[in-house]
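thread: overnight batch results

M.L. [08:02]
morning all. the overnight job finished for the chain we discussed friday. pasting input first so we're all looking at the same thing
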Amino acid sequence: MTIEPSAPSARLYPQATPGASARRIWGLVLRYWYVMRSSWPRTAELVYWPLVQMLTWGFLQNYLNNTTSVAGRAAGLFIGAVLLWDILVRSQLGFAVAFLEEVWSRNLGHLMMSPLRPFELVAALVIVSFTKLSIAMVPVTIMAYWFFGYNLLGLGIAFAVFFANLVFTSWAIALVSTGVVLRWGLGAESFAWLIVFALLPLCCVYYPVATLPVWLQAVALALPPTYVFEGLRAIVLNGVLDVKLMVEAFLLNILYFAGGYATFAYYLQSARVNGTLVQMGE
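M.L. [08:03]
and the structure it wrote out:
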């Protein structure tokens, strides 16, 4: 005879309810927030590299502006491109580093023995990534306007579309890189740091896709950020937002994010089955 759980009994175990899921996600976000807040070098590092990049390319832009009018017109693309590129990099690293901190502290096995489910862990990492990205990019964007008179938010709705596409790409990359760490351990840690920079030449951040060899252009056009930077050039040079480019980037992002999550979930389940979660920090 099957015994149905009573209503009070069911309320004692709310692990599958949306409210319980939200509490677990929020609890994990708070943990990451306390870790970050307790160490000022962590916060300073978030701003340091985007600031250095912005200043370097901003001063180069000023130099080109004072050299030739043609180069100066093209140089207006540099500071915008570097700010958008840093959105991708900071968002990906914000996600990946938060995950790596669990591995470094040998806490990942403990988390996975709790009622926490994979999508809840991913949701928490996404929120943390967005939080770190805001801490990094808001002051840098303000300083770009202060030093060079460049207003990234002046792109209007185009900026919102660029931002969304780059952030979703960053999360897809981070899911794959953390999945690789789950599969091969800390020996693959450098992959999580380097993977996004390997895409820099292919995403055509500072030059049009047509600059690449013909055989490499197909690879570039398979990457969503390529469409964002092509869209940036279209706005700066022609004053037009190419909606078709943004739609193509969005569709590619859906595909890559789904593939990234599937990769992460598969390797996480494999680590659980093989018992490697508790040895991940060794």
